Every structure is written in C-alpha cells, then in structure tokens.
C-alpha cells in the first residue's frame, strides 16, 4: 500500500511516499524556511534531486506545492492513506490512531505539553484532510511507545498535584524510532520481539536511550520535554533545576530565556563552542581542539552512564543498539561508549565496528561479549506501516 508520510514542523514540512510492502521510498522531500522569503521545496525522485523556490510560502502553500509535485509525477492517485508524525500524545494516546474529531481534540489537549510542535502537526493534519478528503489520516505519536513505562519510571518525585492536576510527568520521545529499531534488532538477534531485552541509543541531533523489554518501553531518558536526559547537539540534557534560578539573575535574563539556552545553545555546541555537529567536533578534536575533545568526552560519559542505568529495568541485556546519525555512522563514538561499558561485558570488535556491523548481522562486539548492534532507523517507514495497518483495518470494518 502506498502511504504519504507527513512531518509538519513549525517552519518545515518533511514528506515521503512509501510502498509498505517492501519499504521502498518512491519520493522524499522537505519544504523548509516556511513563512520566510527564503522558503523552498526540495525533493528526491527516481535518483534525481529538484528544488523550487516558494518565497513567503505558508504551510498551506507549501503543502499545496508538495501535492502538485505528487500529482505531476503521477504519485498522488495511488496513495491510500496519510501518516502524520505528531510529537506529543500525552497520556491520551498509547498507540497510533485514525484521525477523527476525538483524536484532533486529544492532540489539541496536548498543546500545553508540546507547544512548539503539536500546533504545526495539527496544521498538517487539517491541510492533509482538505487536500485529500477521501483518504484516511493517521496520527503516529513520538510519545505513544513510552506509555508502557511503569509509574516508578515516569513519576517525578515532586508534589503529587503537579502530576495529578497538571500532567507533569516523564513522557519520553523518539518512540517511533525506538519501536522500529528494537523490532529490527530482535530480528537480527533471531529472537521473538516479545521475548527480547534491548537498550536502544538513538543518537542524532536529539538523543535518547530506551530500555525495551518484550516489545514494551520500560524507561527512557527524555522526560516531560525532550530536554531531559542525554547530552545532545544543542540541548544540555539533565541539569540541576536550581541552575535556572542561579544563572538567570547573574546573566540578567528570565528563566524562560535560560531554558531556551538549555535547549538551543548547550550540549555539544555549548561545551565545545565549535559546533553541535558530531562529525565536525570529532575532526576538530583530532586537530587538537581541547574543548571539542571535552564535549565528545562528556557526551560519551553521560551516554554510557545512562545506558548502564537502563540495564536496571531490563534485568539482562540481549543487545545495546546504536541508531541515528551518530549511532549509525560514528565507529569512534561507539567504541568510546563500549569501552566505558566494559563493566557490562561489552568488548568492541574493531573490524566489525569499522564497517558498522554490516558483515556480522549488525554486530559490532566480539564473540562472547555482550552484544551491541548498529541498526539504521526509519521513522518514516514505521509511520507508513502503522498507517497502512490502520487503513486496512478501517477498510475491513467498512466491508
Ligand atoms: P536528526 O536528529 O536531525 O535526524 P541525524 O540522525 O541525521 O539528525 O544525526 C545528525 C548527527 O549525526 C550530527 O551530529 C552528525 O554530525 C552526526 N553524523 C553523521 N554522520 C557522521 C559520521 N560519519 N561521524 C560522526 N557523526 C556523524
């Protein structure tokens, strides 16, 4: 079944058409800088890249341009459903859902939890419904996979009313990636997904790690927002919350501005002063830049500590799985992390790690050591598969 996957952000809209029977991506593209004079739409089809300037385009104009491209290439008529990435599903959504008035109201209810993302995700859904009124729309939530976390993992130790009255708790993100990657890992391990214990380290610009046992997320590093947990490209990850009250008056800025800096000027970028990009930092570190080296060291140390912590809910580790741009591509970072995790029995096999596990069914560790794998994530495919399943179910129910 061919599915249009849409990830509508505040100033961008990512799209792909995927044939779910074999996972083939027929077209993929990105409208970016939406709302600015530099707005543009780029896409890749049949191995060729094309770009179109859309000066001043808003979300509506951008999506109309995407649909025109799909129509011109003869791809629009065969699409059977639209899968939307939605960032925050709060406690409303434990799985992907066919969009109806109730689902829209649920996503709207979660706007206070995801103020930067949910409104744009809703815009994508509304425009999708207007442009393709005959197609079912499916919402796939970043948070849904983590709704299986037990209360001991998701509660903050704060006054009870903060949770009860204001829904302040840990939710976790990157759920679509963690779900896809943990499934792929079970397949590589030759074990049923429902009897598998893995720790997935999703390391991209945003980073999070999740303990997955028997197909369920038991704990994850991100919290109420994606700021909690690991050191990331520009996000600090865990800090003492008292840091906000300490630094705000010293810098003469409001607490909101401090949180903004923790999201946008911290992490690898903050420590190194060079870049938020791991590849650039590794090159700078190799060239003798001490702060770049330090940033990588903090990143690796904090990640290794978090992974060791996630062994607690699992009880055993069938595999640690690296994914995301850093996890899939940086043999150096993986080797550094595994070295720090020797206490858990990890030992890197240099040759396997160097070719990203391709020659050994994803394995990058030595025989006899605790297993670590590299698995390429594919959130778009997971969204398309969920959408196809729900669309097929809806069609069967209508018959
Ligand atoms: P996003 O979270 O935006 O999807 P990606 O998953 O593409 O991001 O990950 C981007 C990160 O992956 C960047 O820090 C980039 O430097 C890093 N990366 C990509 N390739 C390599 C590589 N060969 N070595 C080290 N880091 C890499």
Q: Which helices and strands appear, and what pairs or packs with what?
A:
Blueprint: E1 2-8, E2 13-19, E3 24-32, E4 40-45, E5 48-53, H1 59-72, E6 79-86, E7 97-98, H2 101-109, H3 118-131, E8 136-141, H4 151-154, H5 160-166, H6 175-189, E9 197-203, E10 207-213, E11 216-220, H7 242-251, H8 255-264, H9 267-272, H10 278-286, H11 290-314, E12 319-323, H12 324-329, H13 331-340, H14 350-354, E13 372-374, H15 379-398
Parallel strand pairs: 1-6, 6-8, 9-12, 12-13
Antiparallel strand pairs: 1-2, 2-3, 3-4, 4-5, 7-8, 9-10, 10-11
Helix pairs in contact: 1-3, 7-8, 10-11, 11-13
Bound molecules: adenosine-5'-diphosphate (ADP).
Residues 204-206, 233, 277-279, 282, 324-326, 329-330 line the site of adenosine-5'-diphosphate (ADP).
Which keywords apply here?
single chain, Nucleotidyltransferase, domain 5, 8-stranded mixed beta sheet, 5-stranded mixed beta sheet, globular, binds adenosine-5'-diphosphate
In short:
Helix content is 41%, strand content 20%.
CATH architecture label name of the largest domain: 2-Layer Sandwich
Described by the principal axes of the CA atoms, the overall outline is globular
Question: What portion of residues belong to β-strands?
Answer: 15-25%
Q: How would a crystallographer describe the biggest sheet?
A: 8 strands, mixed
Low-confidence stretches: none
**Residue share in helices?**
40-55%
Q: What is the mean pLDDT?
A: 97
Q: Which class of the largest domain in CATH terms? A: Alpha Beta
User: CATH homologous superfamily of the largest domain?
Assistant: ATPase, nucleotide binding domain
- Ligand set: adenosine-5'-diphosphate
Span between termini: 18 Å
Give the domain tally. 2
Order of helices and strands: EEEEEHEEHHEHHHEEEHHHHHEHHHEH
Tally of helical segments:
15
- For the secondary structure, the number of strands is 13
Q: Strand arrangement, largest sheet?
A: 5-4-3-2-1-6-8-7
